[in-house]
Amino acid sequence: MVSPSDPTGTGPQGPVHDAGPPRPGLWALVERRLLLNLATGLALMATGIMLMESISRSTLSHSYFWAEESVRYLMIWAFFLTLGAAGRAGHMIRTEMLVERLSPRLRQAANIATTALGVLFSGVLLYASIPQVLRYRSMGMLTESNLDLPMWLLFLAMPLGAVLMGGYYLGALRDALSGRDPYQVADADPELLSDMKGPLL
């Protein structure tokens, strides 16, 4: 980076090179490279099955019994896998008309309250979903279609999504307690997949 006192961009040791933007952390890479790609693949599979089912119904007057069920659970998994990444990229629904008009101290209090509620909601979701998964596993329940998939494996997406969302809100709460705006941090990079600059634990 060129400084006003050194317009040539050279220091005592030679040319000074700009370090560039910071590299994303390990968990941001896991979310971007693994979870988002996996969720996208599941959503594309669900879309393909829906198209196949609609074409089969309209042209062959035949319906696949497993199609509706597979689409439902593929979309459930795709949704819960992206909860943490959506918050980190600034895509969680929030209203800013009131908060933007508050004083800095009240705005920080609002950020602390909303992120703490996010942590609480994630904890309640995790607490409520784990017994359900354990119950389905102990009962050995299978899906209604001829796929015969174990229900506990399908509903495992709920506690996993709760952990991902809770991780995001814990990082956001840490930023709010330190005086930073966690939502501005999430919106800092206009490129969604470039750096994933949202709060990380």
From TrEMBL:
Q: Does the keyword Transport apply?
A: yes
| Pfam families on file | DctQ
Transmembrane residue ranges: 34-51, 71-89, 109-130, 150-170
Q: What is its main location?
A: membrane
Region Disordered, annotated ranges:
1-20
* UniProt KW keywords: Cell inner membrane, Cell membrane, Membrane, Transmembrane, Transmembrane helix, Transport
Q: Which domain of life is it from?
A: Bacteria
**Which Gene Ontology BP annotations are present?**
C4-dicarboxylate transport
Q: Report the subcellular localization.
A: Cell inner membrane
- What is the membrane topology here? Multi-pass membrane protein
Q: Where is the composition biased (Polar residues)?
A: 1-10
Boundaries of every Tripartite ATP-independent periplasmic transporters DctQ component domain copy: 47-177
Quote one Gene Ontology molecular function term: transmembrane transporter activity
Asked if the Swiss-Prot or TrEMBL record annotates the protein with the keyword RNA-binding, the reply is no
Subunit record text: The complex comprises the extracytoplasmic solute receptor protein and the two transmembrane proteins.
Q: Which PANTHER family match?
A: 2,3-DIKETO-L-GULONATE TRAP TRANSPORTER SMALL PERMEASE PROTEIN YIAM
| Role of this protein | Part of the tripartite ATP-independent periplasmic (TRAP) transport system.
Query: What's the family?
Result: Belongs to the TRAP transporter small permease family.
* Protein name per UniProt: TRAP transporter small permease protein
